[in-house]
Design goal:
- With 579 residues, the protein is α/β, with parallel strands linked by helices.
- The strands form 4 sheets. Strands 1-2-4-3 form a 4-stranded antiparallel beta sheet. A 4-stranded parallel beta sheet has the order 6-5-10-11, sandwiched between helices.
- Helix 12 packs across helix 13 and helix 17 packs antiparallel against helix 21.
- Bound molecules: arginine.
Length: 579
């Protein structure tokens, strides 16, 4: 609806420019908001206040002229002028009711895209292997997965790329340690974290060990079969750990989505050669670099993007250049979205710019770094265990489930053990995910079990509960939500509020898909649940005054339930029938 209204206003502005009321060449951003009080219309725009000055008119007078110039549309029943000159739009409730009726009978809930679908690469999770996944990888995994699901639902072709760090100096260290302690092999590898720490200790303590580690990296990179075999074992164990975490987190990532740094190995020399051919390469102290005018350090000196070290080794940036080229030329992506820590912002700006200059990506391809902030502990400091170590993801998830178990048992003592466990899992894991998803990704966020498991506020337990409440209405009636008879009628103010919100689901999803911001969907679901509560409180459903009203309200309830469930699924949460 907001898009429609913006479009109508746009046309009115254009026609006032034609008739000379407004000066030509206006650069206007048309804002359309929901009204606070629906008795004054459903949507409002301050456009007349924005343009009063260039028009040389009082805002209310300009509002009059704009209103007269607005094209009519069957979805808008009337337009008022309010206050200092707001244009207030009343939507046609019958048209709205018909849209919602159609949405209820549509598995896509009435969400259809106008433009063509796109091919979107999503770079997500991407942990460094040879270490166990820790909480630092959580945000990329969860946020990237939610955006991938939303884009898929909107009809895009999504290609997930798990750009794991499977190639680098840390492997030399691990190989050296394994050589030294062959018996650490089988048992040691089941505890990758411990194995990594032990190897690191040797590396830091012994010059001779460190030297051997470096030699082994060179051997590995030269393709030595024995080193490669060991390296493969490390990676497969490490990836199996990741896969367990993905499954537990209900994240749609499989082995097929893994395309790690090593996959680009054979491409790196040609990346450097092509940069040279494009005239972008400069030698600086033996290293090969690209300098771009737009990147300078604090002193104003140009910052290099180093693509090859003096010793011949390649870098993180070189691999990313190869990867972005692959995503354009082989995967033919229209967009590539990178869900990576905000601290890598400069790296991505540089990589994207170099890739464009070198012609590695086709002109129309959108490249977007979807950065996110740091995950802190409840005290606002970086998230650590009590003794200062990094928190293992698996431990965190265990604790979430244990806490959810205690909570659910306390609230609902008569549940059987199996059901209790299922609910605890869905609520516990869902809470960890939702707490992350509901904050704007670019801000840092504090991890707080008490808050995320609360049944009040914008939390997973609240929303899961809200969706089960709708399900319980139909359970009581012993009725399924498909094939509900009747038609939606929008009368009471609470019905208007609820219906207007339901109608906005598609717009919210497109917004999430465009900006990579799942918190917008969380906020929407939270508001929807709140509006449903007041609707349910004020508008009797089962005991409605007449059959037509009862049918209408049941249909509204069913659509709310489906929207909540679908929304939670798109965020990557499992849902429950009851809790
Ligand atoms: N492995 C990297 C890290 O842990 C993240 C990789 C992100 N993706 C990329 N294409 N660079 O920092």
């Amino acid at each position: 609806m907001k898009d429609l209204i913006r479009e109508l206003i746009q046309q009115a502005v254009a026609s006032l420019i034609d008739t000379g009321v407004l000066p030509p060449g206006l650069d206007v951003v048309i804002q359309v908001e929901n009204t606070r009080d629906r008795t004054h219309g459903d949507f409002a725009s301050n456009i007349a206040m924005m343009l009063a000055k260039p028009a040389g008119l009082k805002p209310r007078d300009l509002a009059e002229k704009l209103r007269a110039a607005l094209p009519t549309d069957p979805r808008i029943s009337k337009v008022d002028i309010a206050g200092p000159g707001f244009l207030n739009f009343h939507q046609d409730h019958q048209a709205l009711a018909r849209r919602l009726d159609a949405a209820l009978d549509d598995p896509r809930l009435g969400v259809h895209r106008d433009g063509p679908a796109q091919k979107v690469v999503i770079d997500l999770s991407s942990p460094n292997l040879a270490k166990e996944m820790h909480v630092g990888h959580l945000r990329s995994t969860i946020i990237g997965d939610a955006v991938a699901r939303v884009l898929e639902f909107l009809g895009d072709t999504v290609i997930r790329q798990n750009h794991v760090g499977d190639w680098g100096t840390q492997f030399g260290m691990l190989l050296a340690y394994l050589q030294e302690q062959p018996e650490a092999g089988e048992t040691g590898l089941s505890d990758l974290e411990g194995f990594y720490r032990a190897a690191k200790q040797c590396f830091d303590a012994s010059v001779e060990f460190a030297e051997r580690a470096r030699e082994l990296v060179v051997k590995l990179q030269a393709g030595d079969p024995a080193c490669l075999a060991l390296w493969r074992r490390f990676n497969s164990i490490s990836l199996a750990h990741c896969q367990q975490a993905y499954e537990r987190l209900n994240v749609k990532l499989t082995a097929a989505d893994v395309r790690g740094e090593s996959a680009y190995n054979d491409d790196l020399a040609s990346v450097v050669a092509d940069l040279d051919e494009a005239g972008l390469l400069v030698e600086s102290q033996g290293a090969r670099c690209v300098f771009l005018d737009e990147f300078k350090n604090a002193e104003g000196n140009p910052l290099p993007v180093i693509v090859q070290k003096a010793g011949g080794g390649y870098l993180y940036a070189t691999t990313d250049l190869a990867a972005v080229r692959y995503r354009s030329r082989v995967l033919h992506a229209d967009r590539a979205l990178y869900f990576v820590d905000q601290r890598q912002a400069l790296h991505f700006q540089q990589v994207f710019e170099v890739a464009r200059r070198a012609g590695f990506v086709h002109d129309g391809m959108q490249l977007e770094h979807m950065g996110f902030g740091t995950m802190n502990g409840a005290d606002g400091k970086p998230f650590k265990t009590r003794d200062g170590g990094t928190v293992k993801l698996i431990d965190l998830l265990d604790e979430a489930e244990a806490r959810a178990y205690a909570l659910v048992r306390e609230k609902n003592a008569e549940l059987g053990e199996d059901e209790l466990r299922t609910i605890a899992r869905v609520v516990g894991i869902g809470s960890v995910k939702y707490a992350d998803l509901s904050k704007h990704r670019s801000s840092d966020y504090s991890f707080n079990f008490e808050q995320m498991l609360s049944f009040e506020g914008n939390t997973a337990p609240y929303l899961l509960y809200a969706s089960t409440r709708v399900a319980s209405i139909f359970r009581k009636l012993d009725q399924s939500t498909d094939q509900l008879p009747g038609a939606i009628r929008i009368e009471a103010p609470q019905e208007q509020e609820l219906a207007g919100k339901l109608d906005g689901f598609g717009e919210v999803l497109f917004n999430v898909g465009e900006k990579g911001t799942p918190h917008v969907l969380c906020a929407y679901l939270y508001e929807l649940a709140g509006l449903f509560s007041s609707f349910y409180e004020h508008c009797p459903v089962i005991n409605a005054a007449d059959e037509a009203t009862r049918q209408s309200r049941l249909r509204l309830s069913a659509l709310t339930g489906q929207t909540l469930t679908r929304g939670l699924q798109l965020l990557g949460l499992e849902t429950l029938e009851r809790m």
